[in-house]
Amino acid sequence: MTQPRHTVLYLLGVLALLAGVVLTTPGTATRAEWRTAEQVTVPASTTGRAGLEVAADGDRAAVLTNTSGFGVRARPVDVSVLAPDGTVLALAGASFAWQDGCAGPAAWTARGAGAPVTAVTGEPAPLPRDATARLCLEVSLAEVPAETLRPWDGRSLRVVTRLEALSLDGVSQRAERTWETAVLVDLPAAEPPAGEEPPGEDPGGQEPGGQEPAGPPAEEPAAPAGCTAAGKDALVAWTWQGPDEVLGWELLRRPQAGGAWETLRTLGDGSVRQALLTVDDIPAAERGPGRQSAWEFAVRPRTAAGTAADPPALWTLHSPGNSRRIACPGDPA
Asked: Which stretches of sequence are listed as region Disordered (predicted)?
C-alpha cells in the first residue's frame, strides 16, 4: 500500500506544478499590456559636441554651418562695438537688427552696444545637421550723438556679434562663435556756433581782420609715415609740412594700373594725420578667386584757399588672393 500512495502524491505534485505554470503565464491580451507598459519615450540623441562654423559673406552677411551631429538652434546672443584700436565703445543709441536668411523682417534686435539680443517673433526653425543658413546684420548709428562719434568720423568701427548654437533640448550641448563686421562713421561737417561764420572767411569773403582772401592752395603734398595692416583693417599715417592750416583731408583711391583719383571719403578734422582703411575699400579682383588687384591711396589737404592739386600715391594696398584681408606695401602677397 505504501508504493501506490507515493505514486498518487507524486502525480498530485506534478499536476500542481503544471497548474501554477498555466496560471502564471499571461494570455495574449496580458502580454500586449505588458509590452505597452514597458515602452518609454527616449529623447533625441545629442551625442557628440555642438559645433558652429561662421564665414563672412560680403560686408554685412555671414554663412552659418551646423557642424554638430544633431540639429541646433543658432542665434545671436549679444553685440559689441569696438574702436579701431580695440577699445570697447558704449554707444547707447546704436541699433542692430539681424535677418534670418537675409530676407524679410528682423528676427533679432538689440538696442545699444553691449545690450542682449532679443528675438522679435520667436526663434526661427532649427538648423539641421550639416545645414547652412545666411545671417545679415543692419547697423544704425543715426541716434548716437554726433559728438560721441566725432573722433571716428571717416573711420570704420568694428561690430562683433557673439553667436550661439544650442542643442534642441536647450541644455545639453552649446557652442559659441563670433562674427565681425565694420560700420563706417560718416558725419556731416560740424556746424559753427550760432552767429559765427565758418573758419577762414567772413561774410564779405575776406579773411578775419580784413585781410585779402588766401592765394592758391599749397602745392606741397603730404608724405607717407607708415602703414600697419591687421586682418581686415590697415592704419595709414602721413606727415604734413605745408604752410597753410589744414581744414580737412580727402582720402583718395585709384587702381595701380592707372586711372583718375576718386574721393573715397573726407576727414573733417584737419589735425588728423592718420586714417583707417578696410578691406571693403579695395574692390575685389574681377577675374576670379586667387587673383588680386593693387590700389593706390593718397590724401589731399583742404585749406582756406581751396583743395590742393592731385597728389602722388602714398600707399599701395591689396587683398591677397581676394582673401578678405588687407595688406600694406611689403606685406606677403
From this structure: 188-226, 303-333
